[in-house]
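Recap quiz, item 2
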Amino acid sequence: MSSIQDIKIIELPRINDPRGNLSFLEQKNHIPFEIKRTYWIYDVPGGEARGGHAFKQNQEFIVAISGAFDVIVDDGTQKKKFTLNRSYYGLYVPAGLWREMENFSTNSMALEFGSLHYDVHDYIRDYNEFLKLKSNGEI
Ligand code: TYD
């Protein structure tokens, strides 16, 4: 069962160069899982929020590849807000945590890596159900 303590900000390698900087990540090296899926969120209108769910199995790594936004993670007992605003670090979110994303700056882009292929059955979209599964120790 994961908790807020299992969430990690991971700093990625940075190759600074007068021609422009470069960062990268390798699965099971810089992030602790094999990547099965990559997706990105962009063109978020001002004031909109994303997320609002938990995954039963999927782990994620979230990078603000451009701009800034907040990720609020909740383990059913505690909530913590992480502001992502650099393309060379990201947030590792283990499975079984409720998360929301908000406060997107203009033209920001969230790049997300997942440990599983998309599976609608891996989502928990009802917060009360999340709390129930969490208190039963099922996630
Ligand atoms: P969702 O995961 O709810 O977005 P977010 O958590 O970022 O707000 O996904 C929104 C929609 O996109 C939903 O209908 C499912 C679809 N989707 C896919 O088809 N494949 C994917 O890999 C993802 C992440 C979402």
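Residues 68 and 108 are 6 Å apart (CA to CA).
The two ends are 6 Å apart (CA to CA).
End of item.
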